[in-house]
Design goal:
By secondary structure, the chain is mainly alpha-helical. Helix content is 75%, strand content 2%. It has helices at 6-16, 38-61, 72-80, 88-97, 99-115, 123-147, 160-164, 166-217, 224-286, 292-339, 346-365, 386-411, and strands at 22-25, 30-33. Strands 1-2 form a two-stranded antiparallel ribbon. It starts with 5 loop residues before the first helix and ends with a helix.
Length: 412
């Protein structure tokens, strides 16, 4: 049982589905790249995915014009369910090209986490499990879109060819669920990385608070005790600040690595949510076989899927708040050092100057208008923040209202 690890199980599953050949060694707490036969196994799976993808998409959407009994909304709702798989080619190609870089960044992050292993609580595990639970709504919603009564899979066309293709339709649906699992793994990995970074920032902030308490306990006058204490605090701050810079570099590099996958995933998720909300509205307004319980189930499915998207944004907003909290502690540390006569001795003066440089760095990082001083998170287009998700939600509701007005004029 000592070798059991959720993280190890997580990457074992990723290798099983052919996403990457990374292997996590629990005893050494580091990642290694497995080669033959793991590479051959993953390559065969990925080539199979690429070859099957166009066939599965054609099989599930190629009979749109042969289903006169399906309305426009049912067809659009069904086709939108498959748009999330467009990112699959980009996803697999990028991970295989960047797998050595992923290994290095993963080992850097695990090394930093190991230093604060005693401070890590169960909060990270709880949030990750909640994320996994909410993410499972994607499977439920995709399955509902593909096998509902107005799905193209249930097209009422009496032909022997279609009857013989029923097993292939089912196999295509299973294939799409596996592809969705590959896409979900990227979102979940980004979430886990940011969550771990937030924990590291919390513990680093606690270290700064301990330095503040140590400085406050020193006598105000100049003397040997204060000089000796500053000699210890100065290298401790240097080590802590190097770790902060290293963490910031690792998080930015990992985000840069996955930014295009995140962008396309957010785009398709937005279309996904738009179709789900529009479908719910149409069902409540026009469906002749209206059932209140089914409407409640549809509403819960949409809300669960949207809350899962909000969690993806909120972890980045939490990251910014953690950096802001660290900034506040550094300001307080500078003030305590300055008010205690820190500029009257050499070590206190050096500590003050280094704290000022750190504050310049944090001020630039926490700009209210980041587009003026740095590249935005996702492909230079927008930041992952609460303001972005609020704008997305408003746009989602506005577009659904527009589509509803169009549907009402045509079918009302």
């Amino acid at each position: 049982m000592d070798e059991f690890s959720l993280l190890r199980f997580y990457f074992e599953v990723s290798r099983l589905i052919g996403l990457c050949n990374l292997h996590y060694i629990f005893k050494e707490r580091r990642f290694v790249l497995n080669h033959v036969p793991t590479v051959l196994y993953c390559l065969l799976l990925n080539v199979s995915y690429m070859l099957i993808l166009p066939l599965a998409l054609f099989l599930l959407t190629g009979n749109i014009y042969e289903c006169p009994d399906k309305g426009m909304f049912g067809v659009v709702y069904n086709v939108v369910a498959i748009t999330k798989l467009i990112t699959l080619v980009l996803l697999l190609g990028n991970i295989w090209i960047q797998r050595c870089r992923l290994q290095r960044l993963g080992n850097d992050l695990m090394g930093m986490l190991h230093r604060f292993r005693f401070a890590l609580g169960n909060d990270c595990r709880k949030k990750t499990l909640w994320k996994v639970l909410l993410t499972s709504s994607r499977f439920v919603l995709l399955t509902q879109q593909l096998v509902a009564r107005d799905s193209l899979v249930h097209c009422e066309v009496n032909s022997k060819l279609r009857q013989t293709l029923v097993p292939y339709y089912r196999a295509a649906i299973v294939y799409l669920l596996i592809m969705l699992l590959l896409v979900i793994y990227v979102d979940l990995t980004v979430y886990m990385v940011q969550l771990s970074g937030n924990w590291l920032l919390t513990n680093m902030t606690q270290k700064v608070e301990e330095m503040i308490q140590d400085l406050k306990a020193l006598p105000q006058r100049r003397g040997l005790p204060r000089e000796m204490a500053l000699r210890q605090i100065l290298p401790a701050w240097r080590r802590l600040w190097r770790r902060c810079l290293h963490l910031d570099s690792v998080l930015r590099e990992l985000l840069e690595l996955f930014q295009w996958q995140i962008l396309f995933n957010l785009l398709t998720t937005y279309i996904f949510n738009l179709a789900a909300l529009f479908r719910l509205w149409i069902y409540l307004s026009f469906d002749n076989n209206y059932n209140v319980y089914k409407g409640i189930v549809y509403a819960i499915m949409f809300l669960t899927h949207h809350v899962e998207l909000v969690m993806q944004f909120s972890v980045f907003e939490t990251n910014r708040s953690k950096w802001l909290e660290l900034w506040g502690k550094v300001v307080k540390l500078w003030y305590v050092n300055y008010s205690g006569g820190g500029l009257k001795n050499r070590h206190g003066k050096v500590l003050s100057r280094q704290l000022e440089i750190s504050l310049f760095y944090l001020n630039r990082k926490l700009q209210l208008h980041p587009q003026r001083v740095r590249r935005l998170h996702i492909a230079g287009l927008f930041d992952m923040s609460n303001s972005s998700i609020h704008k997305m939600t408003k746009s989602l509701i506005a577009n659904v209202m527009v589509l509803y007005q169009i549907a009402y004029k045509i079918y009302g």
